[in-house]
UniProtKB/TrEMBL annotation:
<comment type="similarity">
    <text>Belongs to the short-chain dehydrogenases/reductases (SDR) family.</text>
</comment>
<dbReference type="InterPro" id="IPR002347">
    <property type="entry name" value="SDR_fam"/>
</dbReference>
<dbReference type="InterPro" id="IPR057326">
    <property type="entry name" value="KR_dom"/>
</dbReference>
<dbReference type="Pfam" id="PF00106">
    <property type="entry name" value="adh_short"/>
</dbReference>
<feature type="domain" description="Ketoreductase">
    <location>
        <begin position="2"/>
        <end position="179"/>
    </location>
</feature>
<protein>
    <submittedName>
        <fullName>Short-chain dehydrogenase</fullName>
    </submittedName>
</protein>
<dbReference type="GO" id="GO:0016020">
    <property type="term" value="C:membrane"/>
</dbReference>
<dbReference type="GO" id="GO:0016491">
    <property type="term" value="F:oxidoreductase activity"/>
</dbReference>
<dbReference type="InterPro" id="IPR036291">
    <property type="entry name" value="NAD(P)-bd_dom_sf"/>
</dbReference>
<keyword id="KW-0560">Oxidoreductase</keyword>
Length: 257
């Protein structure tokens, strides 16, 4: 039986990863801040699928929280075969409207935690000759969109580079780039969603199923939906200046996170 560690497992995309992986028979290490919610999730997944679900309460915006998850990933007596770096959040507001403390917290969770946890996991995976990492980015990585988009662009670049450096070791890495997904994300950030057309919303369970297929196929970047694949094709052909204008108009209160 293999073990998957999922950060931000209790809601949205992370919870969809937990459901899918548990249904496939993987044991889980569930990471988030809310201890009560983690406990309820672990019990539910254990009872429904008969898997072992371990709980690790950690705040990935703190050094202690990141270090606790690093330690678990480095435990060679209970190896982790798949890491899903999924925990993340949005800040409402444009540049200079968001406090510096909130900007830095975002970089801690989206960049530092992803770097440190990927390193801890892959070091151990490389020595065993197998393993996988999914780093949840966003299609916002491909358009100019403040610290959020910049942090997700880092996730994509970092993951592609690390995947290349580790090719041939048996360790796979993939950046997952969703568009809008119905989760707690927008509500937590206080962002309105009324102006997002229905067709732009993705279902978290379908997204995760496609993402895991893409990982198995050896993709290093997954944009798991034909609508967003087409949109990203248009984005590639659009001059950067024009893209910045469109992104800045549509991208703060309502744009893809
Ligand atoms: N929803 C979208 O439209 C969308 C689109 C593209 C990409 N994404 C990305 O997908 C990922 C998941 O987002 P989601 O939409 O599923 O969000 P969500 O529904 O708000 O869930 C966020 C999860 O992350 C955990 N979390 C948040 N801050 C944390 C911290 N400091 N330390 C540890 N855990 C933390 C939360 O649990 P606790 O509060 O208990 O810690 C929760 O389990 C994020 O990286 C996001 O940027 C989302």
């Amino acid at each position: 039986m293999t073990t998957a560690l999922i950060t931000g497992s209790t809601a949205g995309i992370g919870a969809a990863f937990a459901r899918r992986l548990a249904a496939q028979g993987h044991n889980l290490v569930l990471v988030a801040r809310d201890v009560k919610r983690l406990g309820e999730q672990a019990t539910e997944l254990h009872d429904r699928h008969g898997i072992e679900a371990e709980v690790l309460a950690a705040d990935l915006s703190t050094d202690e929280g990141i270090a606790a998850v690093e330690r678990r990933l480095g435990d060679r007596t209970h190896p982790v075969d798949l890491l899903v770096n999924n925990a993340g959040f949005g800040n409402k507001g444009r540049f200079l409207e968001v406090s510096m403390a909130d900007e830095l917290t975002m970089l801690k969770v989206h960049v530092e935690a992803v770097l440190r946890l990927t390193s801890a996991a892959t070091e151990s995976m490389r020595s065993r000759g197998r393993g996988g990492v999914v780093n949840v980015a966003s299609v916002a990585a491909f358009v100019p969109r403040g610290t959020y988009g910049a942090s997700k662009a880092w996730v994509v670049q970092f993951t592609q580079g690390a995947a290349r450096d580790l090719s041939g070791t048996g360790v796979r890495l993939m950046a997952l780039c969703p568009g809008f997904v119905r989760t707690e994300f927008h509500q937590r950030a206080g962002m309105g969603t009324d102006n997002i057309p229905n067709w732009m919303w993705l279902d978290a369970d379908k997204l995760v199923a496609t993402a895991l297929d893409d990982l198995a196929r050896g993709k290093t970047v997954s944009v798991p939906d034909p609508r967003y694949k087409a949109l990203m094709g248009v984005v590639k052909l659009t001059p950067r200046g024009l893209l910045g204008g469109v992104s800045s108009r549509t991208g703060r209160k309502y744009g893809p996170q």
